[in-house]
Write a structure and sequence with these properties.
DNA-binding, mainly alpha, single chain, globular, two-stranded parallel sheet
DNA sequence: TCTTTGACGCTGA
DNA sequence: ATCAGCGCCAAAG
């Protein structure tokens, strides 16, 4: 079982309405400090329907990967459609409410 | 081969 | 609260 495969399998198991951080996923797959790799792997999965990469955000809840989806607000829309709530720190500064939606696995 | 580049996260000042 | 620095590792040029 490859680290990459573990990450993908785990992401596929994230239930709708929940999110996980890159670091959380990395740690869960045995490599605490390979959070960057998780993001890199997600890049390969962008656009795939069997891998809900939109449910993966950074530890602050910011949608750092939104630029890799069809449109800048595609990720936000998908999350909203699943019932995930956002917190606003500014006008265009939004982040997922991690306290309520973090999935422990 | 070596270097650069990231969808990141923690620690210490 | 804010900011710089470091660790970590796969892929592309």
């Amino acid at each position: 079982m490859d680290f990459r495969e573990k990450v993908i399998e785990l992401v596929k198991r994230i239930p709708a309405g929940k999110v996980m951080s890159y670091g959380q996923i990395a740690a869960h797959c045995g490599q605490r400090s390979s959070a960057r790799m998780v993001g890199y792997i997600m890049n390969d999965c962008a656009g795939r329907e069997d891998v809900p990469c939109h449910r993966v955000v950074n530890r602050n809840g910011y949608l750092t990967g939104k630029a890799h989806f069809g449109s800048p607000d595609a990720m936000e829309k998908m999350l909203l459609a699943e019932g995930i709530e956002f917190l606003e720190s500014g006008d265009n500064d939004i982040r997922v409410d991690m306290e309520k939606h973090r999935w422990e696995g």
